[in-house]
Amino acid sequence: MIRIILLLLGLLTTPCVAQTCEPREENGFTLRKEHDSLYYLNDWRLPYPVYQFQTGDVDGDGRIDAMVGVIKSTRYYPEKGRRLFIFKQVNKKARPMWLGSKLGGILEDFRFIDGRIRGLERANDSLYVVAEYKWGGFGMDFDHYLIKGTDKQTATKYFSQ
Questions:
Q1: First CA to last CA across the chain, in angstroms?
Q2: pTM of the model
Q3: Which of 119, 111, 132 is nearest to 56 (CA)?
Q4: Exposure winner among 51, 94, 114, 158, fewest CB in 10 A?
Q5: Which residues partner with 110 through β-bridges?
Q6: Closest by alpha carbon to 117, among 72, 157, 57?
């Protein structure tokens, strides 16, 4: 009740980034933070820091999916890095479609645009690429580069378009 009153008075706002403690709801998915390295997507436990959360129809089946960027190591990439997880919603529960280790390069950030996932990726210490990926049946398949072999500032500009 107090929360509703505060919302009505404009004293409480709903944040729009994954790093906050307030639940973020988007298209039937709710991302809730317990602490810095424990989140829940609906009922799915994500024991990792989250840097990004978006929704959209990744696989083209007409239903909204959730894309969650997490920071974790993997079996084949033991150094912690930014990864992309994609979830479907089944009976209001989050179920994994793809728990990706890697897209192409070293993932810095991602966006969902026009049915594709756009990745800002580091190719090496000084070169960056912006690539787009589409659903390939099981996971993401490379589609095309928007730009490659460029500095971070230029890549970020292409990534944001």
A1: 41
A2: 0.84
A3: 111
A4: 114
A5: 119
A6: 57
